[in-house]
Design a protein that fits this description.
Elements (H helix, E strand, L loop, with lengths): L2 E5 L16 E5 L3 H5 L6 E5 L4 H14 L5 E5 L15 E4 L4 H13 L8 H5 L1 E4 L4 E4 L2 E2 L4 H12 L5 E2 H9 L8 H14 L6 E4 L3 E4 L7 E2 L1
Parallel strand pairs: 1-2, 1-3, 3-4, 4-5, 10-12
Antiparallel strand pairs: 6-7, 7-8, 9-11, 10-11
């Protein structure tokens, strides 16, 4: 089942009944800080029923930040005329949709590649096999520890998105991990060493954190 991140200005989750089908629902507000600190998720649901302009601003922020997860809007019929490709959405659902329809749309989104996304293997040569917990770069298998693999997988699932050390620590190591953020730096350094000539795949954004660079740019940026 999916981890569904619902972004809504309202306190009540518009898709709260989905938890009955086993999906994990996490809700955050339109606040930019909440977006920056968003937890790990599989699909994004953006509520544009009652604050259309605010929702469109959020959609633009997600685009600018390089979010790669599928985006589905929850809309009322009165706002449909304002929804277009500019939102960079993959699907939308009316607020009156049945639970079964919403569930089906989420499952289809999870099974389909995001429209317009460039496969990471085609850009970087990085291939991650979730079944065997192995990673290859340019055909070479990387000898990774489990946490190194999980860190690389998490960055690869969100290409171009910058994560702070605190975010990576909570999302890869877990909220119950008591080690410091230095742990993240150590694992990034080890990953880069194992990537060898492809070390620039993991970029440093100074004073912010790390991201996966699909274009293999320099490993450190201002």
């Amino acid at each position: 089942m999916a981890i569904v991140l619902c972004i809504s200005p309202d306190a009540q989750n518009p898709l709260s009944a989905l938890d009955a089908l086993g999906h994990q629902l996490v809700q955050i507000s339109f606040d930019p800080q909440a977006l920056s600190d968003a937890p790990r998720h599989d699909v994004v649901v953006l509520d544009c029923r009652h604050n259309l302009m605010g929702a469109k601003s959020v959609a633009r922020i997600l685009q600018a930040a390089g979010w790669s997860k599928p985006l589905m809007l929850v809309a009322s019929e009165s706002v449909l005329a304002a929804i277009s490709a500019d939102w960079a959405l993959q699907d939308f659902v009316l607020e009156s949709a049945s639970l079964g329809e919403v569930d089906a749309r989420i499952r289809i989104l999870l099974d389909s590649p995001v429209h317009g996304a460039v496969p990471m293997t085609a850009v970087t040569g990085l291939v991650i096999d979730l079944d065997s917990f192995t990673a290859k770069v340019s055909g070479r298998t990387l000898d990774l520890t489990f946490k190194e693999f999980e860190l690389l997988r998490h960055l690869n699932e969100n290409p171009g998105r910058v994560f702070s050390r605190e975010q990576l620590l909570s999302e890869v190591w877990g909220y119950d991990y008591f080690g410091g953020t230095r742990t993240v730096d150590v694992h990034v350094r080890r990953l880069r060493a194992k990537l060898g000539e492809f070390e620039s795949l993991i970029g440093t954004v100074r004073n912010v954190g790390y991201r996966l660079n699909p274009d293999g740019k320099s490993a450190e940026e201002n």
